[in-house]
């Protein structure tokens, strides 16, 4: 009897469908593969090692960039752009006090000797000079103030004192002489970090346009002591022939300029800008007097339009 070859077929069996609970359990730990949360221990180790190295390098680069930025760009005492590379340039301008209430105006005006009339100007000067009077009482000032002189410049970390107490009649107790119609105007040189003045201290090389009275003062000071000629000189005058006639005599307190030992300005703790009090002794009343004050040094440009090395204001006393 013939036999029939029986071929055996292996049928694919459909895997059993896992329940949600089983899938969730296998995700956390699969007994067959030993995987934990979808990865074997070896895979987890490689992944953690990669991210550890990646974030370590990233953090190192961040801190290197931050340290470089803070050192070179965010020094609170040293500007990143200085002098010719800065917006203010390398030639300082002059400023005056007191300032009028309207920022667009440069007119100092009041009526005679009445207190209510000159009170605003006196209050302005009191506020402006308050930091000069309370040095040592404010945190961060007073500790490194030094009594400088032309032969006694400040040492490292020291700043020069600006003692305004003996500047009579331009003192608060005397109402800055406004009550006598002979007011005091205070001048200051704008601060430029690292700027060093080049002095006119040689009488043989004074500029031709320098006022004769200032040249005479420089010669007298130089003959007395050449060190005292290391000064950023200041001169004030009426702008027109009529103004020069009406402005009357002028006195500069304590010097006709800013002493050289205040420079360079390095933004040291407690630094106060030097001042010059311009005492207008007998200005004519009832008329506007146009006044220009100029700072003199070889490296101070003179430009009325750009207000370099010069300041303009008007005075009217009724």
Summary, kept brief:
With 318 residues, the protein is α+β, with helices and mostly antiparallel strands. It has helices spanning 20-28, 41-72, 115-133, 212-224, 241-247, and strands at residues 94-97, 107-110, 145-146, 159-160, 184-189, 231-238, 250-253, 257-259, 275-280, 289-296, 310-317. The chain contains 5 helices and 11 strands, in the order H-H-E-E-H-E-E-E-H-E-H-E-E-E-E-E.
Task: Map the helices and strands.
Blueprint: H1 20-28, H2 41-72, E1 94-97, E2 107-110, H3 115-133, E3 145-146, E4 159-160, E5 184-189, H4 212-224, E6 231-238, H5 241-247, E7 250-253, E8 257-259, E9 275-280, E10 289-296, E11 310-317
Parallel strand pairs: 2-11, 3-4
Antiparallel strand pairs: 1-5, 5-9, 6-8, 6-10, 7-9, 10-11
What does this structure look like?
It is a single chain. This protein is an alpha+beta fold and 318 residues long. 25% of the residues lie in helices and 17% in strands. It has helices at 20-28, 41-72, 115-133, 212-224, 241-247; strands spanning 94-97, 107-110, 145-146, 159-160, 184-189, 231-238, 250-253, 257-259, 275-280, 289-296, 310-317. The strands form three sheets. Strands 2-11-10-6-8 form a five-stranded mixed β-sheet. The chain has a four-stranded antiparallel β-sheet with strand order 1-5-9-7. A two-stranded parallel sheet has the order 3-4. It starts with 19 loop residues before the first helix and ends with a strand. The model has no long low-confidence stretch (mean pLDDT 84).
